[in-house]
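Changelog-adjacent note: as of this version, every example in the card shows the full chain rather than a window. The one below runs 155 residues end to end.
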Amino acid sequence: MPLQKTNQDIVEFTKRVVADISNNPQAGSYHLHFQADRPAIYVDFDSKFMQRILQNMMMNSILHNPEHTDIYVQIADTGEHAVIRIKDNGVGMPAHMVEHLFQQYYRGTTTDSSSEGTGLGMAIVYKLVQVHDGTISVESEPSQGTSFTIQLPKN
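Full-length structure tokens:
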């Protein structure tokens, strides 16, 4: 997969993606929060693919949770990595769903509405994080919400 990586401020970039999502009509009754422990953290990444990663994860928090769910986007600098955490206080997922979440064509849904997805979203997110030399993990408990953590190496 050809990446067009450039060294950019992941804090400002993510802040813009959060602003775009919060202006999406589907996000109107959700509460998006943004927090960073540093004003700027520089990482090599491909803007187009990073936007896709962040949008997919935030929209999943919106589409798979009831209205008025809080969605927190947090960025931290651990020295070696920029860590992006997207967590919500929504419906959460059972262990079997968490276990298969990054597999292609797995469509775990916790909503009563029909899922229109292809089951590729989180598998693609996983691959895109990997090609950025990063890692992604998920923690979730039913009725307790879900937390995704992405670690991207700093140079």
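Structural remarks: The helical segments are 10-22, 47-63, 95-100, 121-131.
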